[in-house]
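Re: the multi-chain job from yesterday

Posting the exact lines I submitted so nobody has to dig through the queue logs.
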Amino acid sequence: MTVEAREARQPWILLSPALTAVALLLLVPLAFIVVYSFWLRTSTGADQVGFFLDNWQEALSDRFYRDILLNTLKIAAITTIVCALMGYPAAYVVARSKGNKALLLLLLMLPFWISYIIRTMSWINILGVSGAINSALLALGLIGEPIQMLYNETTVILGLVHFLLPFMVLNVFVSLEGIDRTLEDAACSLGATRWESFIRVTLPLSLPGLAAGGLLCFVLGAGTYITPLVLGGPTDAMFANLVFEAIITQLDWPLGSALSLMLLGVLGALVAVYNHFLGMAQLMKGLG
Amino acid sequence: MGWNLLRGWTVLVYLFMFLPVAVVMLLSVNASQFGSFPMTGFSLRWFVELANNDAILRAFRTSILLGTLTAIISSTLGVLASLALVRYEVPGRNVISTLLIAPILVPEVVLAVALLLFLNVLQINKSFLLLLMGHVIFTLPFVILVVQARLVSIRRDIEEAAMSLGASPAQTFLQITLPLLAPAVFAGMLFAFTISFDDITGTLFWKPGGVETVPTQIFAMLRNSISPEINALGTVMILLTAGLPLVGMAIARRMASRRGG
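And the result, structure tokens for all chains:
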């Protein structure tokens, strides 16, 4: 073999373990559940191999599934908007402050790392019947009975915001850091007020970061089932809870496949739209 | 005036992020029988209870083993792939990068379902092996992102100098590239370990009955009510998940500055 040929083969040798893993553990399984979604779970519990449209018909036409899908998208949208409203100003302050860089990095990264399940359950300590707020109100004599604040849609959104806010802050921060500060100064020296220069220069330039943060918040929020299980009531199931129910509780795997693919289709379409207009590079910056 | 308002807002946002976590830590040292207010005194008894709880210790052993194996496998695959992407002209580079990142673009629930059902057809049932494969595939993109970012900043000419002085490609990799890359590999491993250690979304699908990791154990305990033990366990989780990446970053930074990289 020539040196050139060996040189050309080398990257593929290096890439092959990772690509094999992605192919065998992600791509082939995804292709498989497409096939699986057309099989049928019979009453005996065995799968009937074939091409049946029953699962898709159920998943797409049953109002129950449609309502929960729409409600899931609504919850994800509210979560994303709240994250943007809370996170953008915070990211702006962190990006513009002159404090210790290591401390700022810590502020950006620490909320990411702290355990998701613990952050989710921590709200029970705050809002539960014997949580911080009820205890304080009782001690002050403002209420006679603890107030039931937990286990509704609002607390699900609260938990999701708490989980996803760091993604928003980091993505906005990354794009604000990449903006040339002299542009804002230039706008000001040409007569713009600070606010005008922010609205007309900084904000538009930081929109890619805001969009990347928004996409992550929406997709991760819409795909969760743990938060509704911990902080939601019995009627607050999100779409991923239906998937979990079908697969783990009812063991109806063909239906579970169809439901998974529905979720993937909706969220994948969003990622595709984002990719078309903004590309993946911005998203990667905020993840790395 | 506007700036102060913004700073005030930022302080509130960070209080929102950290206060509930601080309350978990506070309640974990509460002497009270109940995992809630009021505080009746300082006590470490709930941590002692944890150390005596067999189920929790088993969960810790499972999580640590799973996280360690995940970190080793995923960083090995990730480092090799990153080397290829950064150091060679690979045709279709963008497609390959996107493929390698795909496990985090697909919602984790969907990935969990697909992997579970596919491996089931191959007669690989819910098992530790399935958990390990699942954790490897969704930590891989994070390792690749971290390692690639670092690899780009290692100057190619140091490697070329070694080669021109007679080192073989393997020698160059082992003696030049790998030591320069070590901080990134290390950071990637800790990152993978932490993500694996904290995962619950995929794990609940993949774990065999009777096997619990620390997060699924906590989740199962939450079904009853918040006990002081959960707060103590939560504190351990907070310290681990926040502490490990911190240690990783600090070590990576020291290694990098010592080598002048």
